[in-house]
């Protein structure tokens, strides 16, 4: 029972149209699934990833049109990393962000890797991380029809940063329940604050890391647009997921039990500081109801929502997607 790494991360947007433009045209990710939030079918759920939305490459967004701006703070997923192949790619992205007028920091080291922090149009906190020296979980393959040279394209999700007021309870769940191991630490960018501790799972590397930041000085986050809803971790298949459900129950952590998401199967629970974790299967994947060539082009609904298509589509604003260049 070893988690393989990061599976996906789900964040919040208030504007699906602008979100689609930013993540496909500015960042060059592929829209691999245009569907709805299965818990609220009146809003979109957009999945971006590599050429086929492989596990570990998926950045997803719930559209909540009336969401207030996110108020950063503790008990939060405070930064999402996007892997790029090497340091040369970081320089490409620095120039592209400047060309597109996207707010960003300088290239600098974090946790032993070169990185470039930036924000999207809603303040979503993102970090390009170079895989120049990475060993561990392999990344995906950028889509060849994206408006970004493939050699510089985003290859998946990198380290995810958690910010909490007290690190020990979260660290205990990561190591004693979820099987992460402590790898290293690095200085906090905030003077006088504890070091940020790096935990890894599976084969390790940038696609399998959690960076845990303790910030007792912060208020609690008020989640809104530009914030992150949850992070998911990879298991191989349904059998392993059921083992994890039993394991999480035995650990005494309140949880959702088995949840059918059609494109993968899941378990949800909150760690002691209140951050929502998901454990998700690598399959079945996104090409069961659309061909690989046409992923994301039409509104996709799992079979149990298909009978309600007409009602669902009536509540959604049309969202056109013309892939490629």
Features:
globular; 16 strands; eight-stranded mixed β-sheet; alpha+beta; 5 helices; 325 residues
Could you describe the 3D structure shown?
- The strands form 2 sheets. Strands 2-3-4-1-13-16-15-14 form an 8-stranded mixed beta sheet.
- The model has no long low-confidence stretch (mean pLDDT 96).
- The longest helix has 14 residues, at 87-100.
- A hairpin with a 5-residue loop joins strand 15 (264-270) and strand 16 (276-284).
- The protein has helices at residues 16-26, 87-100, 167-177, 238-250, 309-315; strands at residues 6-13, 30-37, 40-49, 58-63, 76-84, 104-110, 113-119, 125-130, 156-164, 181-186, 196-200, 209-214, 228-235, 259-260, 264-270, 276-284.
- It contains 5 helices and 16 strands.
- The chain is α+β, with helices and mostly antiparallel strands and 325 residues long.
- It is globular and about 55 Å long.
Helix percent band: 10-25%
Total number of helices: 5
Strand order of the largest sheet: 2-3-4-1-13-16-15-14
Shape: globular
> Beta-strand percentage?
25-35%
Low-confidence stretches: none
The main β sheet shows up as:
8 strands, mixed
Integer-rounded radius of gyration: 19 Å
What structural class should be given to the helix and strand makeup?
A: alpha+beta
**Care to count the β-strands?**
16
Q: What is the first-to-last residue Cα distance?
A: 42 Å
Overall mean pLDDT: 96
Q: Helix and strand string, N-terminal first?
A: EHEEEEHEEEEHEEEEHEEEH
